[in-house]
Amino acid sequence: xxxxxxxxxxxxPHKIExxxxxxxxxxxxxxxxxxxxxLKDVIEDRPTLKGNALKKAQYVSKETRLPxxxxxxxxxxxxxxxxxxxxxxRYAGRNASYQDNVLKLLDELSGRSNRAAQFRTVxxxxxxxxxxxxxxxxxxxxxxxxxxxKGFGYDPVFKPEGFSKTFAELDSNTxxxxxxxxxxxxxxxxxxxxxx
Length: 196
Prior knowledge:
The chain is of the alpha/beta class. It has one domain (5-195): Maf protein, CATH 3.90.950. The protein has helices at 13-23, 49-64, 98-108, 172-178, 180-195, and strands at residues 5-8, 29-32, 68-77, 84-85, 116-127, 130-142, 158-160. Strands 1, 2, 3, 4, 5, 6 and 7 form a seven-stranded mixed beta sheet that branches. Helix 1 (13-23) packs across helix 5 (180-195) and helix 4 packs across helix 5 (180-195). It is globular.
């Protein structure tokens, strides 16, 4: 599948930078929602990560007439029956900050020994009415305190399996290789290479 240019359906600078780093070796020109000021924010009201990712990519592709790439990510914590999941970005309320969400999570896990968790990302690519989705999972655990200054969201409290550091302590190259979003996008990259 030959794509020369695509739009990342996001205003999040961290997410845009992460995706640009992973996609740049393919020679694809990567734009984002920021390059199209008339685009409206898409309300993520679907009950699944896949549904939200597709909804955003469908809207942006239709409006820009370009292939659109979107993702939705959830942190799934075993002791909380998979929560916050699809509500990860607004766990502590609709306008919650990253810090509000992290503090709520740490509070809910206070005193619990089972801290197993996984990040799950679904990436959706929509192009000329065709839809593809790719999933990436990174297993790990929730730490008892925040560590590190890099990354965003729950990165300061998520320690990936096989590592002694949180996502927020890892350099971006290492994180992109092992992260849920990195894995989902690698699956997308393999698809683009194989379909070419």
